[in-house]
Design brief:
Blueprint lengths: L1 H11 L3 H7 L5 H25 L7 H11 L14 H10 L1
Helix pairs in contact: 1-2
Length: about 100
């Protein structure tokens, strides 16, 4: 619980004492989620600006790195491009 409060205080930008005294415990996860939604919204706005400017303020390699940093780690499509016959057959048998 102590670690959760410490991480929550860091994410929300307030002291741990403030978290303990000024917030209801059941509201903290929702506040953290709202904070992350705001960050995602800001990143999306930055991406839209890059697209609108045709990425002219970044070199191509830097632009590709930026786009990859916006994607979640499991979204690495290059690793999932191989066809796996066994998995395909398992899915076919499920039907």
């Amino acid at each position: 619980m102590e670690k959760f409060l410490l991480e929550a205080s860091f994410i929300l930008g307030v002291s741990q004492v403030s978290i303990e005294n000024d917030y209801y415990m059941r509201d903290i996860p929702e506040l953290i989620q709202m904070h992350y939604r705001k960050l995602q919204s800001d990143k999306l706005a930055q991406l839209q600006t890059l697209i609108a400017s045709n990425g002219r303020n970044l070199e191509e390699k830097a632009y590709d790195q930026y786009i990859k940093s916006l994607l979640p780690p499991e979204a690495n499509v290059e690793d999932n491009l191989t066809f796996n016959r066994d998995k395909f057959e398992q899915l076919r048998r499920r039907r």
